[in-house]
Amino acid sequence: MSLLGGLHWLGHASFRLETDDLTVYIDPWKLVRPQPAEVVLVTHGHRDHLSPEDLAEIVGPETTVVIAAPYVDELPRELEGEVLGISAGETLTVRGLRIEAVPSYNTKKPNHPRDHGNVGYVIEIDGRRIYHAGDTDLIPEMSDIECDVALLPMGGTYTMNADEAAQAAARMRPKVVVPMHWGGIVGTREDVERFDTRVDELTGGEVSVVVMQLEA
What we know:
The two termini are 23 Å apart. It is built from 3 helices and 13 strands; from the N terminus they run ββββαβββββββαβαβ. The protein is globular. Strand 1 (7-9) and strand 2 (15-18) form a beta hairpin. It has a single domain (7-202), classed as Ribonuclease Z/Hydroxyacylglutathione hydrolase-like (Metallo-beta-lactamase, Chain A, 4-Layer Sandwich), CATH 3.60.15. It has 216 residues and is of the alpha/beta class. The chain has a 7-stranded mixed β-sheet, covered by helices on one side. Strands 1-2-3-4-5-6 form a 6-stranded mixed β-sheet, with no helix packed on it.
């Protein structure tokens, strides 16, 4: 399987990851074609990441929702399935999926304070390590993250901008990096082009930038 096999970008910071046995959503928002999920990961409580309307479309009795611990009580009470809170530094295994929570926060912006307990995720699936950074700035902890694929926010305003996200890619040296958190609320095609250029400059072409097409 290719490094991006089964991975679908749904816009903004929302992804669906499919295997033969599992459908996994990360921060589902404004879903066009919702599918029943076995696992859902939520990085924090902002409504473009924790969307009750979208969760209702994909969560059933057999679904496990993994969410940053401070936001467990913000999930709709009527939501079915199992709910597991997680904090940075903790690891869970759900349906054979190894899920590691890592820090995700702003350093110079007020939107995502460190003490709010937001997380990113490193998911081990089919021999790959896929990192979803959540809404974050360039933070020291990124130097310790080992991944094959990095999904990095680079739209600026609430997260890293293109230059900062390129620095993050240079620190981690994944095989592939995918820009996210652009094209909707913030971030433009020009930002993506700058990100692509800067990653190439900072890594000497060792890290491939893949701009995923939005799933219709």
